Amino acid sequence: MTKKLNKSQEYIPDGHDISVLNECIDNPKIPLRELGKKLKISFVTVMNRIKRLEKEGIIKKYTTRVNYDKLGYGIHAIIEVRISKGRFSEFAKALEKEPNIYKVYDTTGEFDSTLIGRFKTPKAMDKFLKKIQSCDFVERTYTKLILNTIKDEAMKI
Known about the structure:
Arc Repressor Mutant, subunit A; four-stranded antiparallel beta sheet; Alpha-Beta Plaits; 2 domains; 5 helices; single chain; alpha+beta
């Protein structure tokens, strides 16, 4: 049975929810009946658990993992950005339409934001960097190329 905390009404997943989540992380296309059999719970229970996890925002999205290298996006970069004080929202808005940047983090430390992106060529990456560096709210960037990915998996609960 799933529970809620009294004070904040925060949703607390139980053991069945965790099992459903971990199985869906491994195989998001698994049929609900098969998932129920594997977890020894009914199809209806699985369906209700998934609906509740979606409603609570624990399951946010179903997606496909793509091998971008095979599509020609061989330049994989981490770009750290120092942003003028109080101008993070302008920076975030400027990145909304940047197709090569797929993750944007608001961070602590020497830099205010960390971007992760993929580019087809060094020239394409250079063009993007020069574009953001020309924004008056960007003070400095620091770029690192990702040479190899050692681990890239969804974290299980």
